Amino acid sequence: MTMRHVGLLSFFLTAAGSPVFADGWGEPHLDIVPRTQVEAERISNATASTDTFETAEKFETHPAGKATKFGIKTKDAFSFASANMTFERELDFKVGNGFFRKLWVTAPASTVSSDGLGPLFNARACQRCHIKDGRGHPPEDHSDTGVSMFLRVSIPKSFSDLDDETLKYLANAPEPTYGTQLQDKSIAGIPAEGRMEISYETVSVTMGDGSTVDLRKPTYTFTDVAYGDLHPQTQLSPRVTPQMIGLGLLEAIPEADILALADPDDADGDGISGKANRVWSGEFDQWMLGRFGLKAGAPTIKAQSAGAFSGDLGLSTSLHPAGWGECTGAQSDCRLAPDGSSPTDQLEVSDEVLDLVTFYSRNLAVPARRDLDDPQVLRGKELFYQTGCVSCHQPKFVTHRLENQPEQSFQLIWPYSDMLLHDMGEGLADNRPEWEATGREWRTAPLWGIGLTQTVSGHTNFLHDGRARSLLEAILWHGGEAEPARETVRQMSAEDRDALITYLESL
Ligand code: HEC
Ligand code: HEC
């Protein structure tokens, strides 16, 4: 992938027909101190790709720069504050953690500040899904309700009754009755929307050395529907909860540095495109680069968190002021249920609480790398670079220098994601677009901390819907733009394959 020079101002039209500022839309969420010329040169040296694999690189031990947390290899490994946080700010982090863990209750309740859950919801607390601040998983069996994943839902915009001007500012056209997310839980007296079901079929992949790996291919249905049939054109998108580490650093990567990696029309012909998602920000009333969510559908951590309060918990914030959360006009009883709004701001979750949860979500530390001088890890790293994994899993960035976010300011970080969308082929397609992302595109998953998944979460389920049961399975699902890289891995000797996996486990 080429490093397209971002300099000239230019405009182009997107598929939706709206003018787009090709060099970015701006970063109103950050209080940026502009880079000096000298800094820009230092940064370009520090982020240049390595070509030696005999030893680890300088600072490679610190994936999150000075915010990296050292010495923790327990199941709490994802739950520490940025290591460079002051004691005073850590108090806010702890209060934010309290709200992240808090179990919300139905309104009206004696604990006024904790009520307003639902009427429809997927879980009663953020951490019910973001378990140990790590990733979720699909249900293990019929007795497991699959609380840490859900289905997004919509219909194609061309089938919607909403007018074009309204649709322009929506990621998707909502399913007329069920909205944009299926909630499988509800308060007493209001039926839950239904139940997610997954069935798996086995797909065998024959490796270059003749051995086989069995993958499980999921099919999703939404059954026991309580509000009538879903629209015939319904699009479902399964989403497993992602890990929470390093998010504030991802939010602080300069937009220009992400856009410099984009190559939407594959102008350099390397088979890897990389496309920025462009999303509407209700918070700033403008288009912004999408960064969060599995299709980069949200511009900021605050927007994603407010969306979660509304869609996942049924709680209102100033960004989503409806006390009924995701109940649609077609779910009238649901809209009439009592809500937990406070008399002062008419909200269930105040701006103060939203800000504390956002601060918490921004500051979960990335653990330090382990074993990075191990010869097998170094060999695996070489393979990761040679195989082209780095075309999407971009190793390094330097974050903006920021006025009021010392933890995220000017850090050399190693997220192993370009923050762009890539076509991952038919196998991983959900066939549900989201803003500019097509039904085959996903945001490159950041790989930092991935080697601690077993330790933190007690499983190794990967990809957007947790279908992969190991790192190797996750790689073997890569298709589309990543097919050549996947084929290289499939043809690798067992020894090289093991080295590549051992390297991923050291991240
Ligand atoms: C029902 C499960 C569930 C609950 C409850 C939940 N989340 Fe999430 N969270 C998810 C899923 C799934 C995603 C990915 C969403 C997507 O792709 O759009 C996500 C994504 C995120 C992200 C973006 C992560 C990234 O890598 O881009 C943040 C931040 C976040 N959630 C914060 C919160 C906060 C704060 C709360 C509580 C107010 C919360 N979540 C509650 C399931 C949940
Ligand atoms: C064309 C871009 C691209 C290339 C090349 C690529 N990946 Fe990925 N990778 C992605 C995207 C996008 C996802 C998320 C897919 C999903 O969730 O369905 C992903 C997900 C992953 C995951 C799972 C992460 C998680 O959190 O669940 C692993 C592991 C991974 N890639 C490793 C690799 C390795 C190793 C290589 C090289 C052999 C590679 N990738 C090459 C784009 C790419």
From TrEMBL:
GO terms for molecular function: cytochrome-c peroxidase activity; electron transfer activity; heme binding; metal ion binding. Residues 1-22 form the signal peptide. PROSITE patterns: CYTC (PS51007). Keywords: Heme, Iron, Metal-binding, Signal. Transmembrane segments: none annotated. Residues 375-507 form the Cytochrome c domain. Coiled coil: none annotated. SUPFAM superfamilies: Cytochrome c (SSF46626). This is Thiol oxidoreductase. It holds the Pfam family DHOR. Gene3D superfamilies: Cytochrome c-like domain.
